[in-house]
Amino acid sequence: MSDVDDNDRLLHEAAAGDRASWGELLTRHRDRLRRMVALRLDHRLQGRIDASDVVQEACLEASNRLNEYIDKPAMSFFLWLRFLTGQKLVTLHRHHFGMKMRDAGREVPLDYGGAPATTSAGLAAQLAGHDPRPSEIAVQLETQARFQAVLESLDPLDREIIALRHHEQLSNAEAARVLELQEAAASKRYIRAMRRLKEALGDWPQSGVESPP
User: Fold this and answer.
1) Phi/psi at 53 (5° precision)
2) Rounded to whole angstroms, how far apart are CA atoms 135 and 118?
3) How large is the average pLDDT for residues 83-90?
4) Burial, 87: exposed, middle or buried (Cβ in 10 Å; 0-12, 13-18, 19+)?
5) pLDDT tens per residue, range 27-78
């Protein structure tokens, strides 16, 4: 049985009230959803709001709306879950900041696919890695600063394609659907953005950026 067929089977079993099938579906996607939330949650809310709680709220809404999705599935189940999770993030940001979201110390936020756009600082932190040893902190900060400088020079849509493909690990088809692009256009943007990122970092030994295929 293909992954698509297995996913459809679990969906219909869940809609019929099978909680085990619903739990299996959510387990398959929670890690990817947490990565999305961790990247896109405003830095001023980090430490106050847990990514798992945002995902849990989105999954609860998905459970309540599952029959609605099955009757008219406009996208894959994962992208639907991601959309609901993104909407939870947008609501959280508006609740906490309102119009202050566009403050002087922050890039103007754009929404892509129903979720808050990533920022250069947030994406740079993810690309630079986490939890360095004390002796490596200075190197990591320098690496992050270099990533951020390059990312800020990119078109916002190119930053998004890097975030979707490189960090959220979406397929090219999924990224294209989120950004409302043709698959060929999404692929070209990703390759161009990653090459520009690598070229700008040059032979910087801490970059950790591999050339796109």
Assistant:
1) -70, -40
2) 29
3) 94
4) middle
5) 999 999 999 998 898 888 888 899 999 999 999 999 999 999 999 999 999 9
Tokens of 86: 């993104």
Encode pLDDT of 100-121 as tens digits. 544 433 443 446 566 788 778 7
Alpha-carbon torsion (29, 58, 177, 94), positive or negative = negative
Distance CA 182, CA 2 (A): 25
- Whole-number Å distance between alpha carbons of 136 and 145: 14
DSSP β-bridge partners for residue 116: 111
Check residue 106 and give its pLDDT: 43
Do 89 and 116 meet the contact criterion of CB atoms below 8 Å apart? Answer: yes
Q: Give strand pairing partners of 49.
A: 46
Nearest-CA neighbor of 146 among 117, 120, 169?
120
Q: Which one-letter amino acid corresponds to residue 210? A: E
CA distance 63 to 69: 10
Q: HSE of 37 in the Cβ direction (CA atoms, 13 Å)?
A: 28
